[in-house]
Design a protein that fits this description.
The chain is of the alpha+beta class. The protein has a domain at 45-170: PAS domain (Beta-Lactamase), CATH 3.30.450.20. It is 32% helix and 29% strand. It contains 6 helices and 11 strands. The chain has helices spanning 2-19, 35-65, 70-80, 120-128, 169-180, 221-230; strands at 86-93, 98-102, 132-133, 137-138, 144-153, 159-168, 187-192, 198-199, 234-241, 247-260, 263-277. Strands 1, 2, 3, 4, 5 and 6 form a 6-stranded antiparallel β-sheet that branches. The chain has a 5-stranded antiparallel β-sheet with strand order 8-7-11-10-9, sandwiched between helices.
Length: 281
């Protein structure tokens, strides 16, 4: 329960500060390395480029072959096998009804032919003809997901439907972390700028969640979260005592903002440095 409560504190702070339009300058720390963040940005750019190309290729195939039938299903099956963090690949018709999915019969999706409600990305893609990234959502089993979609257009430009990935968001971040930091010494996370929802959030949490006696013993935790929410890029740090050893730990964080299909995301890296024995108050 304590873990859940602390996670909600982070989310609530980020959400309220972003919604309030806070414009406080980020607290910067010149000792925080920028190279790990650059590595994460490069890997994320590369991975997102791969996803876009894969979806674009599938959309062209489905436009030529049709969005339903064995040939179309093979396109989805091939697409679903390419990335370990993809839960499903789906095609939808122009009304938003699920046409086919792969792997077939996945328990997280409704039956084929059922219309998916509130698909804001459908209207967006119909209007723009451009790919779309949805908002983070949570499955009933607690998994955090996000959908990435590409419009299927005929040779005359008619909107036929969409093809997309349903992505397990935390596994996507874990994949990026392994690619960017194979040595395992740096953690990576992302926060949806519109809501403050965090993926990979186990590495960015309130000091109290570490069993350190709560926010009373942190150093600059609230100021750090305010800076993170208010500033598109920056760096900062916060401190807490480890619950078992009593050692003081300083977490250094640097972040930037990327735009993915008209949605802003904070992405960042976290590095922990043990300072030695400390005295808890």
């Amino acid at each position: 329960m304590k873990r859940v409560a602390s996670g909600l504190v982070v989310l609530l702070l980020l959400s309220l500060i972003i919604a309030a339009g806070c414009r406080r300058a980020a607290r910067t720390d010149k000792n925080v390395e920028t190279e790990p963040l650059a590595r994460l940005e490069a890997e994320m750019d590369s991975l997102l480029g791969d996803l876009d190309r894969d979806l674009s290729g599938a959309a062209h195939e489905l436009a030529a072959r049709g969005i339903k039938g064995d040939s179309a299903r093979r396109v989805l099956e091939r697409l679903s096998a390419k990335h370990p963090f993809v839960l499903d690949c789906c095609s939808f018709d122009s009304t938003g009804s699920l046409v086919q999915s792969a792997p077939r019969g996945h328990h997280r999706l409704p039956d084929e032919g059922v219309q998916i409600p509130n698909r804001e990305s459908l209207a967006e893609m119909r209007r723009t003809g451009q790919p779309s990234l949805g908002r983070l959502f949570r499955f009933l089993d607690g998994t955090t997901g996000v959908d990435m979609n590409q419009p299927i257009l005929s040779s005359e430009g008619e909107f036929l439907g969409t093809v997309g990935f349903v992505i397990e968001a935390d596994e996507l971040m874990a994949n990026l972390r392994r690619r960017a930091f194979p040595e395992g010494k740096v953690d990576a996370w992302a926060a949806e700028a519109s809501s403050g929802s965090i993926i990979g959030g186990g590495v960015l949490r309130e000091p109290g969640e570490q069993g350190a006696g709560g926010a009373k013993q942190d150093s600059g935790w609230i100021a750090f979260v305010e800076a993170l929410a208010a500033s598109p890029s920056g760096s900062g740090s916060y401190e807490f005592f480890e619950p078992d050893s009593g050692r003081l730990v300083r977490k250094q964080v640097s972040w930037s903002t990327i735009r993915v299909h008209r949605r802003d995301w904070r992405i960042g890296v976290t590095m922990a440095e043990t300072q030695g024995e400390g005295t808890q108050q």
